[in-house]
Amino acid sequence: MVAIMHNSLIFLILAALGPATPLTPPPTSGGHLMPALALTATGTSVIWHDDATRAGRAAAGQAIASDAVLTPDPTPYRDAAAVSLGDESYVTWVENDWIYGFVIGNDGQARTSPRLLAMVDSRHTQRIAVGANRDRYLFVWGIWTKMLAIVLDKDGNVLVGDTQLIPGGGIDRAVDKIAVASDGTDYLVVWEESSDVPWLTPCGITCPSADRTVHSIKVTADGQPKPETETELAVGGGMPDVVWNGTDYLVVWTTLAGGGIVGRHVGRDGQPAGSVVTFAGAGPGDFGPHVVWDGSGYDIGFVRLEGQQLRAIRSNGDGTLIGPLFEGPIAVIGWPRSFSMSAQGKTVAVAYEADGRIWIRRANTEVPGRVRASRPH
Hints:
Blueprint: H1 2-17, E1 20-22, E2 33-39, E3 43-49, E4 53-59, E5 70-73, E6 79-85, E7 88-95, E8 98-104, E9 115-119, E10 128-132, E11 136-143, E12 146-153, E13 158-166, E14 174-182, E15 187-194, E16 212-219, E17 231-235, E18 237-244, E19 249-255, E20 261-266, E21 272-278, E22 286-293, E23 298-304, E24 309-315, E25 321-324, E26 331-332, E27 339-344, E28 347-354, E29 357-364, E30 372-373
Antiparallel strand pairs: 1-29, 2-3, 3-4, 4-5, 6-7, 7-8, 8-9, 10-11, 11-12, 12-13, 14-15, 15-16, 16-17, 18-19, 19-20, 20-21, 22-23, 23-24, 24-25, 24-26, 27-28, 28-29, 29-30
């Protein structure tokens, strides 16, 4: 009996580690960089770049075959975003003076051709974001001190054209990182503003200065902002992300300049609720959080400055630690844009740069307080 219990304990400990498997095929023209990941009902979609913009989809637990790689743009992007809607994905990217997007079907093929979404200034639009509700997408981008949005149907057709979410003003508060989540109908858009100039002094693992603020605003299903909900959530904070948990939103960000991951809940009405919480398991020196909801807990990935370690934890909404999503560091990476996270039901995945390609680690959180590895087929 003791031996059986001992063996079971060993299995649980080993299973919590989760397997690291390649998601993209071996590189043929430069390393695969800056992934944006989206889990669907039966598969995994990702966009990345090497000497061009690439994308692909694989069945759950599988890798993308070399002959299934899509090349929607011959130019590498400077930012990309991906989101799932049912069993399809919408991937977007910005390169030079243009922003594009297209739908990847559940067969891994491009269901729509890449479509031009906006023409931009290559300096002043550095970051983009996309979210999905039940039947449409909200795409958001920054233009120096302003943010604009468009609403697209499930086929990538524009339903509502350029809508200004915030008016901007002045020349010293540039919009940097943006994130979007949906409650199934409306959206919460979060962003950071900084006196740093993103196109000249971008954040790495850390940021050039602590002069950054984190903001949120509710946006309707028709892409219209609710100005009365615009809130400054943090001063001396940056690199925000947001997720909907079925009841309210959780916005997370990095405290600057020394690091640390904190967050605050925001209601469906766009109003902050409760106080700022600090996430146990992510302390000083941790930067660039990504957050997803797995049905019973929050999964938060971040980069630890010491050793440039990618780590991930599971947490309750009050910041208390459930446990590590994976024991120890997942990988050594250069900055928070070297990894992406996504969840679909109880499955959580982290995609990251390693050995010239994009790798993935999946976990299943169906057992409360435990993390079981999803093993490759």
